[in-house]
Amino acid sequence: MKYKLIVMDMDGTLTNSQKEISPLTKYALIEAQKLGVKLVLASGRPTPGLYKEAKELMMDVYGGYLLSYNGAYVCDYPAQNEVYSCTIPKKYIKPIINNAKALNLNIMIHKGENVITDKEDTYKLQYEASACNMGVEVVEDLRDYIDYEPNKFLISAPEAYLKERFEDFRIPFGDRLSIYTSAPFYIEVVPNGIDKGASLKKITNELQISREEIIAFGDEMNDLTMLQYAGHGVAMGNAVKPIKLIADEITESNDKDGIALSLFKAFPEISKS
């Protein structure tokens, strides 16, 4: 058996358009775990936003890893022992918020069990809370509220406007922060040098396995380094073009059991019946 680790992005990859794991994909992943393969859920979501899917995939039984905040935090599951954590230095908090506000972009952070914002009509607020299985808290001013170093900022706006303003938001920070899109309507801001690929390396070091023993699935730009690091990077059929260009394989979309169909080829031991 070639692969020892299956790594998956969540939204647009593991889950379908209804934010559900399809029965066939769930079956394939559970069967792979029965063969001794470990799962890694790799997402921009906060750690609590991965618990539901982790349990659904029986990771509480077989064990695995949660790579959250686009790699700024990694823990094992279900024990939740910290493997790696990195936060945004306090000196960048107000500049991030001020720049977003100047460009009329929406700002969210995750803390505890809530998505925190300072506008009730923050774009995609309810979508984010629902996707992460979290509550919502609206504060008067995030600049006054944030007295700690967060793992990530989430910036949102309608797709066309976000695309137009992305470079205006990113350029002032140069290479001092890692800034990229995770969906057409989201910009993710994490500590410098943080991405899914770098944090995946932390897991492989802990497990003492090689890159060649990893198969990874993704669809958006924040999955690029993860697919490049894995021995076999798989782009979903619904992936953005740059992801498809660097992938070793292009499978079906997240709405057509793309992960399951790829795993049936990678693991002939798994019966399709």
TrEMBL record:
Q: According to its record, what are the GO cellular component terms?
A: cytosol
Q: Tell me which positions the record assigns to the signal sequence.
A: none
Q: Which InterPro entries match?
A: Cof, HAD-like_sf, HAD-SF_hydro_IIB, HAD_sf
GO MF annotation list: magnesium ion binding; phosphatase activity
Which PANTHER family does this chain map to?
HAD SUPERFAMILY HYDROLASE-LIKE, TYPE 3, PHOSPHOSERINE PHOSPHATASE
Instruction: Identify the NCBIfam families for this entry.
Output: Cof-subfamily, HAD-SF-IIB
Q: This protein is called what?
A: Haloacid dehalogenase
**Organism, per UniProt?**
Amedibacterium intestinale
